[in-house]
Amino acid sequence: MMTRLFGAPIKRIEDPRLLRGQGAYLDDLGSDALAAAFVRSPHAHGRILDIDVSDAIDIDGLVAIYTYDDLPGPLAEPLPLLIPHPALTQGRTPHALAKDEVNHVGEAIAMVVARDRYIAEDAAERVVVHYAQLPPVVGIQAARAADRLVHDDVPGNLGARMTQAIGDVDAALAAAPHRLALDLTVERSASMPLEGRGVLARWDRDSKRLRVWTSTQTSTGVRAAVAAKLDLPLGAVEVITPDVGGGFGVKIVHPWPEEVLVPFAARALDRPVKFTEDRREHFVASAHERAQIQHVDVGFDDQGRIHGLDVRFWHDHGAYTPYGLIVPIITSTQLLGPYRVHDYRVTFDSLYTNTVIVTPYRGAGRPQGVFAMERTMDAIARALDLDRADVRAANFIQPEEMPYDHGLIFQDGRPLCYDSGDYPGTLAKLKALIGWSDFEQFRADARAEGRRVGIGLAMYVEGTGVGPYEGGHVHVETSGKVKVATGLTSQGQGHQTAFAQIVADELGVALEDVEVVTGDTRRFPYAVGTFASRAAVMSGSAVALAARVVRQKALRIAGEALEASPDDLEIVDGQVRVKGAPGVTIGLGTVAVLSNPLRYAFDEASKAATQFAIGNPDKPPVDEDDEPGLEGKDYYSPAQSTFANGAHAVIVETDPDTAEIKILRYCVVHDCGNLINPRIVEGQVHGGVAQGVGGALYERMVYDEHGQLLNASFMDFLMPYVTEVPSAIEIDHLETPSPLNPLGIKGAGEAGVIPSAAVFASAIEDAEGIPIRAMPISPSDLFTLRARADRLTSERPGPRAPAAGPLEEIA
Ligand code: MCN
Asked: Any idea which fold 468-636 has?
């Protein structure tokens, strides 16, 4: 019997190549290409009066300069609004090159193409743009005040206002035994993949075809955009995703201006053209996320059960809304987490500001929603002097209530209906893992040594595997090797390994014999993309279904060859054999030969190899209506998302003098249904936690009042190094299979980052006894909070009581 690969913690097969430096990232390609550089706005808000290129055009090596006026046809129209929504009545998207106004520092105004990047940058510097500067709108409060407008025709800077409600929240709040209000803030952060964006394009004049390589999360999305913007048939554009050095959401916005402009230049100049983003560009010309201000009004009873929850939040959308309302919609729905809230109302305003656009970054609105809900849970516990875990448990949706429909509409326009999950089970595992009940002893011991420690926890539910579809193609070659293609892209998630595990199991072949290709429209032309932790569910299911198609065909052909019923056959180690009679076998490669009559007729060796099995070697055993070749394709399209969940706990130590925040332990319990590869999932969780630590303790985009991003470099934007990330992230899994897909899986790619801000806030609050209402929190923030708390209370300096204090009002 072959060992089942599904569920095995196999090392990632793609890694040795990448670790040895043999990867091929975008900038490794196209050494013969011309280089593109961009003239970008230095101002946050302004009208373009004039663009003067005269000083640049004499530079030796300059090939072309394009401004908005040079863009033909559809390329001159605004870029598409990817995911429209009825509530987004004032959606705005940029032009590929600014038409007559700029709305954030970094907006592209002109594209310069030259022999090499140095010349392109020099020429770009000599392009003089005259502006009439306009006062910028920076930050949520300025956007709400609306003294100034980002877009003249958008009153109040209000892109959208959306409300969803269930039950009667006003009545529930009025009747609740206790009430509490919280005002919360989450700062801007961003994806920050180590490889920035980049695109290379080659035009083939003879065939009138364009080949584009781009560091993207959606090759098919880019192909559709390039074809539409350049007025080319879809079939004339091929998009290939090379190795990608991280995406984390930012590479999903299709198309980025550069992704249509570079192909445009390649066609116009009939020369390959390449653009590689630099780090400062990534800060000011890609996308950010997270920034929200939230107000929570909650009513609850003596056990901490929520009776009514009214949430109002303001979402900073930056200058444009190319990705629609996905992020705030996710915040507003996923906020509920594992809890049953019958009376809930949420309203958000999506606001324009003169800052970089906001599109999904790993977690996509969930970290903010979880922050709101978990801060609320802790506040209730503090107010009632209850155990924080008990308050959560009192509000859980129970396993037997699944599927649980909240009565809200989720990001995909379908009901927010949890398919499965065991939230009490998740919490129980987390408490055991971190030693929740032993912590007070630890605190007392630490306190005796003059140390200040705190423990925090946070829980979440995450909609994953969002539709509409993905497909898979599986091809058994005559060598017996299996080629698998799926259309979505990979940025480091380990798809090559995980999908190979699935197909190897389905076909009964060795892992080494399976090769997986992603993100190449030549290999699989229809796909959606990699985001929303959907690849495992969507493409994992699709390649499994495609492999089953191939398996059926292989068994049928082999059955005829072996004169046995397909039902009596099995495939082991790449050999089809009669169950219980391992002596008579036929290799899958041979079946592939048999499946292709033409190949069979021409290939004497194949004939000889199969002659023993099929009485008449001149007539291969295929059905008349069989397509030639041992290959199969299938699609997976779920009715709705599947909902993963998890819980994090952290123990921190805060320095009584310097307010330094040290992580002592970090524990994760995660339920993403059946695990394809626990090692990969744990890697995903580790990476997510690392980003979460950044978001909780370090990262913020610091804009001044002029809309200048002051920390647009890795010198100034504090991403955690390995020294700041806990060296041991302790993980335990729970597997509640999803009933929605053939493998019972749920997504895992964002889990690590979702509750991080909430769990750190919980732990720091526990250590300090001060309500934590804003993230990230730095030592100096904590220092300031302590000083404020000391002014407000008469407590002596030192650890404050974690129970409800005078800082929090109970109505
Ligand atoms: N997996 C598994 N068992 C499961 C679920 C997932 O073994 N039950 C494996 C999958 O096979 C896959 C990995 O875990 O190898 C992540 O799967 P999934 O949750 O489907 O997420 P995606 O593959 O769709 O990846 C997207 C997700 C998102 S939304 C962001 S953002 C993100 C992330 O993954 N960006 C990443 N992880 C990243 N990891 C890297 N290295 N780089 C990025 O840019």
From this structure: Aldehyde Oxidoreductase; domain 4 (3.30.365)
- Kindly indicate the confidence band of residue 809, based on its pLDDT and cuts at 50, 70 and 90: very low
Span from the CA of 398 to the centroid of ligand 1 (angstroms): 27
Query: Which of 541, 684, 740 has most ligand 1 atoms within 8 Å of its beta carbon, as the pocket-test mutant?
Result: 684
- Which helix (H) or strand (E) covers residue 504, if one does? helix 495-507
Confidence of residue 609 (pLDDT cuts 50, 70, 90): low
Identify the residue whose C-alpha is closest to ligand 1 atom 37: 749
Give the Å distance between the CA of 747 and the centre of ligand 1: 7
Mean pLDDT of the 579-597 span: 87
Predicted confidence band at 797 (pLDDT cuts at 50, 70, 90)?
very low
602 — pLDDT class (breaks 50, 70, 90) = low
For residue 107, report the phi and psi dihedrals to the nearest 5 degrees: -65, 135
Residues with CB under 6 A from ligand 1: 193, 246-249, 362, 491-495, 498, 530-537, 540, 672-677, 680-681, 684, 687, 745-750
- Residue 160's φ and ψ, nearest 5 degrees, are -160, 150
Torsion region of 691: left, alpha or beta (phi above 0 gives left; psi -120 to 50 gives alpha) = alpha
> Which pTM does this prediction carry?
0.94
pLDDT single digits (tens) 197-248: 999 999 999 999 999 999 999 999 999 999 999 999 999 999 999 999 999 9
Give residue limits of the domains in the chain: 18-23+35-134+191-285, 292-466+639-795, 468-636
State residue 801's pLDDT score.
46
Separation of 753 CA from ligand 1 center, angstroms?
12
Asked whether 761 and 696 are in contact (CB, 8 A), the reply is yes
Supply 811's token pair. Answer: 């109505």
What's the average model confidence in pLDDT over 559-585? 91
Topology of the domain comprising 292-466+639-795:
Aldehyde Oxidoreductase; domain 4 (3.30.365)
Q: Which two tokens stand for residue 689?
A: 């936690």
Q: Is the pLDDT of residue 402 over 50?
A: yes
pLDDT at 582 (0 to 100): 76
What sign does the dihedral 383-388-392-395 (CA atoms) show? Answer: negative
Q: Which residues contact 294 (CB under 8 A, 6 or more apart)?
A: 182, 183, 184, 185, 186, 311, 312, 313, 314, 368, 371, 372
C-alpha span between 673 and 64 (Å, rounded): 53
Q: What pLDDT score does 75 carry? A: 98
Strands 661-671 and 729-733: parallel
Give CA–CA dist 586/667, Å, rounded. 49
Question: pLDDT at residue 471 above 80?
Answer: yes
> How would CATH label the architecture of 18-23+35-134+191-285?
2-Layer Sandwich (3.30)
Backbone conformation region of residue 270, classed left if phi is above 0, alpha if psi is from -120 to 50, else beta? left
What is the rounded distance in angstroms from the CA atom of residue 322 to the CA atom of residue 453? 44
Q: Which amino acid would we find at residue 176?
A: A
Give the dihedral sign, CA 54/55/60/62: negative
SS3 content of the chain, % helix, strand, coil (to 5): 30, 25, 40
Strand ordering across the sheet containing 273-276: 62-66, 108-114, 34-40, 273-276, 198-204, 209-214, 237-240
| Domains 292-466+639-795 and 468-636 in one fold | yes
537/472 Cα distance (integer angstroms): 12
Closest CA to 66 of 320, 257, 279: 257
Q: Which helix (H) or strand (E) holds 442?
A: helix 439-448
Helices (H), 67-218: 117-125, 140-145, 169-175
Q: What is the pLDDT of residue 811?
A: 33
Mutate to test the pocket of ligand 1, among 194, 197, 533, 745 (most ligand atoms within 8 A of CB): 533
**pLDDT above 90 coverage of the chain, percent:** 90
pLDDT digits (tens, 9 = 90+) for 330-361: 999 999 999 999 999 999 999 999 999 999 99
